């Protein structure tokens, strides 16, 4: 993992988002096995987050979004999670 992360620009009980300026990937998702025991549930959350970024075209030319997902995220509906992610990313001035 990264030795030193930049300051997050969005944090809630569901997830935390960082922006890495000098990275070539557009999205990284980190989900703890401690909070989500089954690989099926971790993969479902990753697919949902990737889909939100794809549908809303939240990619950047340079840099990468790093999303840390917490346990309460699994109780969110897809639409609620989508709104929260989009608002968080769009509030960050790129």
List the helices and strands and how they pair.
Layout: E1 10-11, E2 15-20, E3 27-31, H1 39-55, E4 64-69, H2 78-91
Parallel strand pairs: 3-4
Antiparallel strand pairs: 1-2, 2-4
Helix pairs in contact: 1-2
Would you give an account of this structure?
The chain has 94 residues and is an alpha+beta fold. The chain has one domain (10-91): Ribosomal Protein S5, domain 2 (2-Layer Sandwich), CATH 3.30.230.10. Helices cover 33% and strands 20% of the residues. The protein has 2 helices and 4 strands. The chain has helices spanning 39-55, 78-91; strands at residues 10-11, 15-20, 27-31, 64-69. Strands 1-2-4-3 form a 4-stranded mixed beta sheet, covered by helices on one side. Strand 1 (10-11) and strand 2 form a beta hairpin. Helix 1 crosses helix 2. The radius of gyration is 13 Å and the shape is globular. 16% of the residues are buried. The mean pLDDT is 87.
User: Taking all residues together, what is the mean pLDDT?
Assistant: 87
CATH topology: Ribosomal Protein S5, domain 2
CATH architectural designation: 2-Layer Sandwich
- CATH top level label: Alpha Beta
Question: Which features does this protein show?
Answer:
94 residues; alpha+beta; Ribosomal Protein S5, domain 2; four-stranded mixed β-sheet; 2 helices; 33% helix; globular
């Amino acid at each position: 993992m990264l030795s030193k992360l930049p300051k997050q620009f969005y944090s809630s009980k569901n997830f935390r988002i960082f922006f890495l300026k000098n990275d070539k990937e557009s999205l990284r998702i980190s989900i703890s096995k401690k909070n989500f025991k089954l690989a099926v549930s971790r993969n479902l959350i990753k697919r949902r987050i990737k889909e939100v970024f794809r549908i809303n075209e939240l990619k950047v030319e340079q840099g990468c979004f790093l999303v840390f997902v917490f346990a309460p995220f699994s109780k969110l509906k897809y639409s609620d999670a989508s709104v929260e992610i989009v608002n968080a990313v769009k509030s960050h001035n790129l």
